[in-house]
Amino acid sequence: MKILMIGDVVGELGRRTLRDYLAQCVQIYTPDMVIVNGENAANNGRGMNRSIAQEFFSLGVHCITLGNHAWGQPEIFDFIDREQRIVRPANYPSDSPGNGYTILSTPAGKVAVVNLMGRALMSTLDCPFVKIDAVLQKIPTSAFVFVDMHAETTSEKQAMGWYLDGRASAVIGTHTHVQTGDARILSKGTGFLTDVGMVGPYDGILGMKREAVIRRYVTQLPVRFEVATGRSQLNAVYLELDRQTKMTKKIKTIRIDDEHPLMG
Predict the structure, then answer these.
(1) Residue 158's closest CA among 182, 176, 175?
(2) Where are the catalytic residues (predicted)?
(3) Which of 121, 199, 218, 228 could form a disulfide with 9 if both were Cys (CB 3.0 to 4.6 A apart)?
(4) How far apart are CA 56 and CA 9, in angstroms?
(5) What is the rounded distance in angstroms from the CA atom of residue 249 to the CA atom of residue 251?
(6) Which residue in 15, 69, 88, 157 is the catalytic one?
(7) What's the predicted TM-score (pTM) here?
């Protein structure tokens, strides 16, 4: 089983970058499943609408994960309940729209994709550790288990990785938009990366126009953030999973920008 996980797609530039590079990534890595975090994909960097989801699926994406901006576009409420290929954090309140996990079939087997959100420096949600235990009880042992841990702090993401070591095929962090250098296979076989990074503006700050972000820090006043323009980047991670053990055999980070062209 081969999985390609694409980091948080930010704004129109992020979507254009995904269009530019996804087909080449698929040609090189031939993944059985492509997962994309789309919670920043709208033009203003908050949420995702129906047309964006349809575009991602048309590009060959199999599953879209979300995060703290899941409800950033009101249109999401019109279709998330009916779209099994989109998952929002499972530890949102139980009556929230949509699903916290999904099980999708591929030629190489079934993959359960679970979305979780951290609580440190973020919203007060149900405990992601308690929630994932409940979710795992519902997933057949024959399925690979891929977890998108959408969290602010590296410690909470690493804690989830070790908590699920040997129980999940992979735990990949999202949200902080900077790819970390700790891709590894934990002691019981779970593939782990603290943060996969982002897709979109290369010269902004976490995808936003840097002038506004700097002004916020300097003045401590409310500032409206806008998605940056200019050069772009794509960050992703590629995993190979063992069909028998359901654990990770190989994990490799991918970074594409002007200084790091796409290579096989």
Answers:
(1) 182
(2) 69
(3) 199
(4) 10
(5) 7
(6) 69
(7) 0.95
Q: Are 235 and 199 in contact (CB under 8 A)?
A: yes
Instruction: Please report, as a single letter, which amino acid is at residue 172.
Output: I
pLDDT at 6: 98
Indicate the residue type of 153. T
pLDDT digits (tens, 9 = 90+) for 64-89: 999 999 999 999 999 999 999 999 99
Burial group, residue 161, by CB count within 10 angstroms (0-12, 13-18, 19+): buried
Pairwise CA distance, residues 143 & 243, whole Å: 9
**Residues of each annotated binding site:** 8, 39-40, 68, 150, 175, 177
How long is the chain? 264
In the chain the domains, ranked by start, together with CATH numbers, are 2-256 (3.60.21.10)
Distance CA 88, CA 95 (A): 12
Here the tokens at position 22 are: 């996804």
Q: Is 238 helix (H, G, I), strand (E, B) or coil?
A: strand
Q: Which of 90, 83, 91, 81 is nearest to 56 (CA)?
A: 83
Binding site as annotated, residues for Fe cation: 8, 39-40, 68, 150, 175, 177
